[in-house]
Amino acid sequence: MTTTARETVLGRVRDALTLARPAEVTVPRAYRTGRTLPDDERLALFVDRLADYKAQVRTCTTDRAPAVIADALHEHGVRRAGAPADLDAAWLAGYDGEVQWDSPAVPARRLGELDGVVTASAAGCAETGTIFLDGGPGQGRRALSLVPDLHVCVVDLSSVVPGVPEAVARLVPERPTTLISGPSATSDIELERVEGVHGPRTLVVVIRTDS
């Protein structure tokens, strides 16, 4: 019986896959978790890391948050701001511009017409200055926080934890997660920093210290 080249190749591939099938390996998951820091130390470390990433940081109490958010939007000339449909409307009470409440019916390309966006967040990591969004209440879809050029993100100090394992533990695994470490930037081309390539060029973080 004559064997064709095709049969020969497929036979070799089949044999290779059989031989290369790895044995089951148990991966250790004993990550260091449960660390804590006093509020003042967590806040100072988080703010320091955010500043390293060139994010603009503002701290305030909950009752001052609407005024601080409005000041940030006005300072950056935002005339049309986007917001998730379930964002607390009181957060934008001090803003006198147009607010577009987002919905799945709004095409992603239309989000580029917004001057900025305001969202909540799921968690923050003090050691890395990273903010986590997982599509939970007040956070909206991923495109909403990635397309507009300005992102005003409200972070509750109570959601800021020391390290990445503690932050990941606060997330809902089934939700799409966005990690934000400062404004979007890259230095891939001739090591020159270029901002706004993969997301917002400007990130303003409003930290509610009494939450």
Question: Care to describe what's here?
Answer:
The protein is an alpha/beta fold and 211 residues long. It has one domain (38-208): NagB/RpiA/CoA transferase-like (Rossmann fold). Helices cover 24% and strands 22% of the residues. It contains five helices and twelve strands. The protein has helices at residues 5-20, 39-52, 65-75, 142-146, 164-168, and strands at 56-60, 80-83, 98-101, 116-119, 123-125, 130-133, 150-156, 160-161, 178-180, 185-186, 194-195, 202-208. The strands form three sheets. A six-stranded parallel β-sheet has the order 1-12-7-4-2-3, sandwiched between helices. The longest helix is centred in the N-terminal third of the chain and has 16 residues, at 5-20. It is globular. The model has no long low-confidence stretch (mean pLDDT 90). Pfam families: LUD_dom (PF02589). Residues 45-207 form the LUD domain.
